[in-house]
Amino acid sequence: MSLNVPTDLLELAERGDVDDARFVECVRESLPYAWQVVSGVVADLETGRAGFADDATPPPSESERGQLLRALASDAIRGGLERHFGVKLAFQNCHRVAAFRPSAVDSDDYRAFISPRGQLLNQSPELRDC
Fold first, then answer.
1. How many Å apart are CA 104 and CA 129, to the nearest integer?
2. Which residues, listed in sequence order, are joined to residue 55 by a DSSP beta bridge?
3. 84: enclosing H helix or E strand
4. Is the pLDDT of residue 130 over 60?
5. Do residues 30 and 22 make contact, with C-beta atoms less than 8 angstroms apart?
């Protein structure tokens, strides 16, 4: 299961749309490692001058890796995080997370990060089974 959904939030969803704030709070509580990584790259982005910031630190366990995969593979979760933080997220190798300023989405850095070439250049034998 991707998220631990409180009963009141599930009931709210059954009645209609759920606002981003409640959804993102559920994500934060359910996927704390993914939240930590994403909020960390966003903080790095905010304090730097570059158009993006990334974190390529392998997760400490498969449980944490699973959190990243669930957060960034889900359109709803990724979209909620992007709206909450005001960034565009990108993902490689099952653990390399990048946050781009919206103005950098049409940049060479962004295109390089999301390209097949970028994916291939970020491979290594230890990442084959991640």
1. 31
2. 97
3. helix 75-85
4. no
5. no
